[in-house]
Design brief:
The structure is a homodimer of 106-residue chains. In chain A, helix 1 runs antiparallel to helix 4. In chain A, 62% of the residues lie in helices and 13% in strands. The longest helix of chain A has 16 residues. Chains A and B meet through helix 1, helix 2, strand 2, strand 3 and helix 5 of A and helix 1, helix 2, strand 2, strand 3 and helix 5 of B. Chain A binds a DNA duplex (30 and 30 nucleotides) through helix 4. Chains A, B: It holds the Pfam family HTH_20.
DNA sequence: TTGACATGCAGGTATTTACCTGCATATTAT
DNA sequence: ATAATATGCAGGTAAATACCTGCATGTCAA
């Protein structure tokens, strides 16, 4: 998993909207997705390319159409690497903060 | 939670490194964090400002020092909004894909 | 086969980003 | 008080980003 590509892909409202659109109806074509976006088709393509590079979306060509499918694996990897780690320390971090505010270096 | 700020904050290796550094030892000063970064202090400040704007880091001033603490709440929100949703549909998505590959429009 | 349709590809531009240098301010220690 | 220390603030630049327009290619249907 390339955390940089995944986070950067997620760091844009258009691309998050694309993921939501695919979550509502998986396997949509480029044209279908564009109908919901209010930008040129070519711009949407660039966003989808980034989602694909981050492996968040997989595509299949069917005739002259290109179908788009969500791949949830990178999101799960993000969870394992960047959420669980900090969740685990949640209480102890709050404890540290409280201690600092009370003068942690005594 | 501002998903845009959070994902953009996470979409940079320097800022993810800062979070890891704070995970190892919470409550570090700007100077301490800079020692591990290989860039000008002012650049690190800008990264920390973005982490703070995303509410991923909270700060406390103690004398002339500024202490930095991780706030795991936005990460948890990300999980709720962007991971669980897709995790839940994982199997059904794979099912959709398989069906498409076999000729979904029959 | 020919026209309509879905997508691919090649630039071009304005904005944002990630760094930098230089200087100012505030706190601590001698 | 003065010097050292920790951070804040104000630009300045090169690269990345998010759009766009125009044209090319490939597929389907009449």
């Amino acid at each position: 998993m390339d955390a940089d590509k995944v986070f950067k892909a997620l760091g844009d409202p258009t691309r998050r909207r694309l993921l939501d659109l695919l979550c509502e109806k998986n396997g949509q074509t480029l044209g279908q997705l564009c109908e919901n976006l209010d930008m040129a088709r070519q711009s949407a393509t660039q966003h989808l390319d980034l989602l694909e590079a981050a492996n968040l979306v997989n595509t299949v060509k069917r005739g002259r159409e290109k179908l788009h499918f969500i791949n949830p694996v990178p999101l799960h990897d993000i969870y394992e690497r960047w959420v669980r780690k900090f969740e685990r320390q949640r209480l102890s971090l709050l404890h540290d903060l409280k201690q600092e505010l009370e003068g942690g270096d005594q």
